[in-house]
Structures are given as structure tokens and as C-alpha cells.
Amino acid sequence: MPFTKSAVELFISARTAAVTQCGASDLRTMMPETEHWLSEFGLAVIFHDFPPTALRPFVINFIRRIYAAFLEYDLARQEVLKLLKDSDGRWSPYFAALTHFEVAVSQLYLALDSVRKLRNHNFFTTGDGSLEENLNLIYNASKHELAGTELPVWFTDDGLACSQAKVSFTDVENFMRNMADVVKALCNREIALKALQS
Prior knowledge:
Layout lengths: L4 H7 L2 H5 L8 H4 L6 H12 L7 H30 L6 H28 L11 H14 L8 E3 L3 E4 L3 E3 H19 L1 H9 L1
Antiparallel strand pairs: 1-2, 2-3
């Protein structure tokens, strides 16, 4: 006999049972070029001697983190779709999706933090409510907080949250698109030079 949604809500997690739609977009289909970023970087280095040698390890690490964020975000979306397909009494796909979302956020935040350290530039100040601060709060909750009556990080139909922050899938996806533009510039000397000149 299958579990009911109310049983899942009562015994497993009310948040698991509350998801009714997938708010995460199919970025992998929208941006298939993400699969080739590291290859493009290698070609840029070999044929255009770009970026400069001293920056190459940093750029490789940055690109791999942004690529991982796209990959994990897509895996999370697939798990949400599994959850919704047979929503009554299912909970495992919720937790699989949550794990992938947490990894996506961590990779985005670590990429951003690496730029902060390289350039000595803060992207947010405490309490400013920016997306960057909220990503940091969700990353920290995932990494440091213990589960209480519920998990430290969760997702809903429209975004990710922790006790101190919430981000919509739309905002996360726009941020990921911005990071994709940075990756394109790092792989293309002409794009990078135009960006520096503007």
C-alpha cells in the first residue's frame, strides 16, 4: 500500500509534501554550450594564448565550478520532476533534488568567493539583502547548521530557502546566466577585450 501525501507530511517532512510544481527551468536545453566550456578554454589557450598563463589555473577552477552548478541544477530539476510525477507518498526525490540544489548553490558561491579573494572585492555587505548575500546565507546554512524540526535548507515551488534567506529560481537562473557570460569571456579573447574596453 503506497504512502499518502498526508502521511509524508506528518512523518517525513511537511515541506516535501508541499511541492506541487517545478519552478526550475531547463537551463541545460537552453544553454547546451555549457558542456563544452572546458574544451573551449583549452582551445583558447592552445590557439590564442589566452588567458595569460598566470591566470589559467584560476580560470579553470572558476569554469569548472560554474559548469558544476549548471550540471547540479539540472540534476535537481530532474529529481523534482520525478517527485511530481508520482507525488502521492514519494519523498526520496525531494531529498535528492535538495542535495543537487545545495551543491549548485555551493559551486556558485565558491566561484564568486574565488573572485572576491583574487580581486579583493566584496560582492555584498552583511544585511544588504542581495542575491549574493542570500547565496552565502544558504551556503552557510547547508554547511554549518544542524537539522532541527526541519532541514536547514529547503526548496519550494519557486525557490530555495533557509531560516535567514530565500532566493527564487528565477534569480538563481539569472545569476547563472551572468556567470555563463563571464565564462564565455574567459574562453574568448575578443569578447574579453571588448568587455575591458567598454
